[in-house]
């Protein structure tokens, strides 16, 4: 689950986690955050997600963070954007038309780089990490994002013994344990989505729930 794992996945184009459409949960629930259109939005572990152009189309400045350079280059190429590239602290910053991506280790991002973020969106970051890294990830989020920041978190939950991650199962109880100290938590959706995820069914997973949360930084 460390750098070598993800770099190898991108190098081999083993990116089954990438969606070829905008996430329906993002489209349905993003308005619940009630963010001003011009707000900057952090998207951790963003890959080449099509959710970023969707957020930009809502008027937001988008700040993604992605470890794999291949993913960042593919994103801008596939969006037919010519990015300006330069150093930004310990990371490299790619930027074009309202979308910036910091390429490098998420744990090397500094509060100064995210100080303008009023929102954040996580569809595939928390569930990409094993338990010990999930704790570090949430601690880093809390260090990076200012009080009042509003986020949309999408998780999945299934019997972990039935399938190896990633993506990993994250229970409602774990979300509340991880975020409860630093965030107000509101559950917006808890839905059985096994029928819509053939790969899980093919691996004999018996239940798959998607949960969507609205989070507000205390």
Write the layout of secondary structure elements.
Layout: H1 3-11, H2 24-29, E1 40-43, H3 51-57, E2 61-66, H4 69-78, E3 84-88, E4 91-96, E5 99-103, H5 111-114, E6 117-122, H6 131-144, E7 150-157, H7 172-179, E8 183-192, H8 198-202, E9 209-217
Parallel strand pairs: 1-2, 1-6, 2-5, 6-7
Antiparallel strand pairs: 3-4, 4-5, 7-9, 8-9
Characteristic key phrases:
218 residues; alpha/beta; nine-stranded mixed sheet; 9 strands; globular
What value does the Rg take, in angstroms?
16 Å
What is the arithmetic mean of pLDDT? 93
> End-to-end distance, in Å?
30 Å
Largest β-sheet summary: 9 strands, mixed
- The number of distinct helices, counting runs of at least 4 residues, comes to 8
Plain-language structure description:
The protein has helices spanning 3-11, 24-29, 51-57, 69-78, 111-114, 131-144, 172-179, 198-202; strands at residues 40-43, 61-66, 84-88, 91-96, 99-103, 117-122, 150-157, 183-192, 209-217. The protein has a 9-stranded mixed beta sheet, with helices on both faces. A hairpin with a 2-residue loop joins strand 3 and strand 4. It is an alpha/beta fold and 218 residues long. The mean pLDDT is 93.
């Amino acid at each position: 689950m460390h750098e070598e794992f993800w770099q190898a996945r991108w190098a081999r184009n083993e990116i089954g986690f990438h969606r070829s459409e905008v996430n329906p949960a993002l489209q349905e629930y993003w308005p619940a955050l009630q963010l001003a259109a011009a707000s900057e939005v952090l998207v951790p572990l963003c890959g080449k997600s099509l959710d970023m152009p969707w957020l930009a189309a809502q008027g937001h400045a988008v700040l993604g963070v992605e470890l794999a350079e291949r993913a960042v280059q593919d994103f801008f190429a596939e969006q037919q954007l010519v990015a300006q590239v330069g150093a930004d602290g310990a990371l490299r910053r790619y930027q074009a038309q309202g979308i910036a991506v910091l390429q490098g280790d998420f744990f090397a991002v500094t509060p100064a780089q995210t100080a303008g973020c009023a929102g954040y969106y996580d569809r595939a970051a928390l569930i990409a990490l094993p338990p010990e890294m999930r704790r570090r990830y949430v601690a880093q989020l809390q260090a990076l994002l200012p009080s009042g920041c509003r986020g949309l978190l999408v998780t999945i939950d299934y019997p972990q013994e039935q399938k190896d991650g990633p993506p990993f199962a994250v229970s409602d109880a774990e979300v509340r344990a991880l975020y409860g100290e630093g965030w107000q938590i509101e559950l917006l959706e808890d839905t059985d989505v096994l029928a819509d995820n053939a790969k899980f069914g093919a691996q004999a997973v018996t239940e798959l729930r998607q949960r969507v949360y609205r989070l507000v930084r205390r």
